[in-house]
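Schema walk-through. Below, the input block comes first and the output block second. Nothing else is stored per chain. Lengths vary across the set, and this one has 330 residues.
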Amino acid sequence: MPAVTDSYIREQLEKRRERLHVAIAAAPVAAPATRFRDLLAEVDAAIERMDAGTYGICEVCSDTVERDRLIEDPLVRFCLDHLSGEERRALEGDLELAATIQRGLLPPCGIRSHDWQIGYEYRPASLVSGDYCDIIEPEGDKWPIFLVGDVSGKGVAAALLMSYLRAVFRSLLSSGHSIESLLEAANRLFCESTMAGQFATLICGRAGDGGEVEIVSAGHCPALIISGQGIRQVGATGLPLGMFATSRYAVERTTLEPGDSLLLYTDGISEARDANGNDYGVDGLSRLADDWRANMPREFAANCLKDVQCFSSGTPQADDQTVMVVRRMR
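--- output ---
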């Protein structure tokens, strides 16, 4: 296993061992103490495997156990191919439940707020997704905030971090942060709560009066402003979340005219490939924007995913795909 995962998991195992010793000493009756001792023996065995250099190796086939499963449960000893039937069914049930919960965290697909309409499409590559998609309408007569992000990695671990990011942003918004200070506060919390090597790219925007839009991009794919004058890109204004706790973020301000749109997406869109290995790219998005600029945001987003799917026909979807369209209506 990579050293970065080893150090993180060792820390987690040692913390669990300490807590188990406390729980055993405090157990009022023998039965709970016995269960705690059995669990302590498993933790000790995992640390011994780590010391011996065999941690994270499947005990049946000697292949590597999936990293996200080790992060979720550091006592795992078998890869997915060698789970028992009962274990496999339990895992499938957990994943299906996680996918249902994650879908429930998504915002409504079409939102109309003041002069703005926002639509999106969200297509995970597997049951759960590491893409972050949110539209927040603060209480009172305030302007909508929209977010699109992408957590590093895949699977359950990435999905858990996505859910954590959502909770962070929704809790911070109640404090009345400016959009740039919102990103800085979220970055500090993300750095404190994740292990080394985990990060997230993200765009956070706030629509305003008179067509004004504020955009802060934490190392995310360039946003596209689609207007009658053409298509313009808005690049990153800071580093991805989770890189450095002291990162600062600049805000980009622009004004959209009635009918203009802002297109946000994750790299599962721009890096989708055809059978020849060609990327869909920003060029594909720009071409689509020219063809569909008059469509309503949700229809625009849906056609974008259809076009990407057509482009990459014959190749499996390699990454989660999210696209959001923010349009000034009047």
